[in-house]
Amino acid sequence: MTAVASIAAAQPRNGITRIVGQSLTMAYRGLLKVRRTPEQLFDVTLQPIIFTVMFAYIFGGAISGDVTKYLPTLIPGILVQTVITGSVVTGVQLREDMDKGVFDRFRSLPIARIAPLAGALLADTVRYAIATTITFVVGGTMGYHQVFDHLGWTVAAGLLVIVVAWSLSWIFALFGMLARTAGSVQGISFLVLFPLTFLSNAFVPTGTLPEPLKVFAEINPVSHLITAVRTMVNEQQVTGDVWLSLLGAAVVVAVFAPLTVRAYMRKA
Amino acid sequence: MSTSTTAPAIEAVGLVKVFGDNRAVDGVDLVVQPGSVYGVLGPNGAGKTTTISMLATLLKPDGGSARVLGHDVVKEAATVRGLIGVTGQYASVDETLSATENLVVFGRLLGLSGKQARAKAVDLLDRFSLTEAAKRPLKKFSGGMRRRLDLAASLIAQPPLIFLDEPTTGLDPRTRAQMWDTIRELVQTGSTVLLTTQYLDEADQLADRIAVIDRGRVVAEGTSDDLKASVGTASLQLRLVEPADLAVAEARIRARVGVQPVASAERAWLTVPLQDPDRVTDLLVDLRDAGIRLAEFGVQKPTLDEVFLAITGHGADQDDAAETAEKDEVMA
Questions:
Q1: ipTM tops 0.85
Q2: B109 and A9 in contact by Cβ < 8 A?
């Protein structure tokens, strides 16, 4: 028996702490990449700033009479839209990564197969946190005082959005696994998300919509998440929408996590 | 554990990999002894990378079996991964990270603590003369530096077996020579190396044994001397001023070196297989004594194309042959 072989054999290969450690290392790698290419963060930094300011001044007067009165409606909408759109990037980047030579090395290392996937999903929660913080701060600065008045509720609402976005990133990670190129992941994902985020109560009260759109907007899960955030930040209440959103997130993870992991294992 | 010190580093029997209609690897047998450098020589598309990928557990074989240091590459893939280092044909490192960050990430994945991983990175960067560039993102690295980092990353866990897929393809001659030195040092520390190459001289320089692979099959196997004996080490090419002297020249050549020269189609060039370069001097003196005047002569080393021609009866891919041709011509 060679000494090296015995060292390799002595390590528990599937120990949960090892898998977690390896996933954290992969997440660390993801964050290093972000630090080297800060332009990757434009969608979660500049986009919420530009959208918030733009929509507030364009729609504020028409919908709520003035900009400040519109903010309690708009900010939760922008927040949910930005963070959910941001979860698409998980799929795009995973696809790009898997096409690169470095992935061959990951596959040749004695590490848990799931670590690169888990690491990518983990690193992306940092992106969601950045987007959430920026959107709330911009909104608060513009006059959405509830954000700062009840900080605990704001943080809780932010966490809810991050959890839901994280659950959705499993779907886009699956797209990433199945699609042929990174570009097509982006294309397919936005085709789904664009109507889903706009045909909701994000920017306008659903009462003004024509009947079929109104029905869709009211059953749209995005609307429920937005309502949950609004009631938490504006009224400091936990309504059924919060539980509905969490249930939805749990269902998505329960369905897509196994599918994504299976597709990933087949590729990796 | 069934690993014994006498187990071959690699033992592959009848490996097969099929992509659609293409039998990329079609029954490859290999035995690599521990502590040696084994060269797999072949043109693009011969199945070299596919073979390495199966041995390194990156691809599942469609047929046959392989054992690495006594462990089956399919059934004991996780164990095999702990025993090998793989340097791919395309840089298997992160472009956006710095050299240090790359090595630290790989070190952490291999179970080193943060401190150990950083110390290992410093150590390896020093060993591969990359210390000055340690903090730069890889995008600013030259091809040679990138390959060196790639190799460094394969050595973090000090694996007893290292796969190098075309380690010098695309490098300039000076960088290639540096890479060769690095690989030689690696072997001196006791590692077993399996490398693939398109260059006959690279296999000749580095490998203890060579397998020539063509269309997914091993067509020749042996030491580099065995291989060269099958094609001759080099050939002497002569162009006569007077084509009429051809018969006399051929007779003189037969008498001196004992082989039949090959005349080119336009009958101006004579090609003489050359086993013993010392006899060239004698042969040239003979020709002068016979009053045969030479317009030009040159010495040509065997190209991969000629090795293939000799072994398989068909040439290697044209581009590869052009790259490996080394013709040192001397004007007479």
A1: no
A2: no
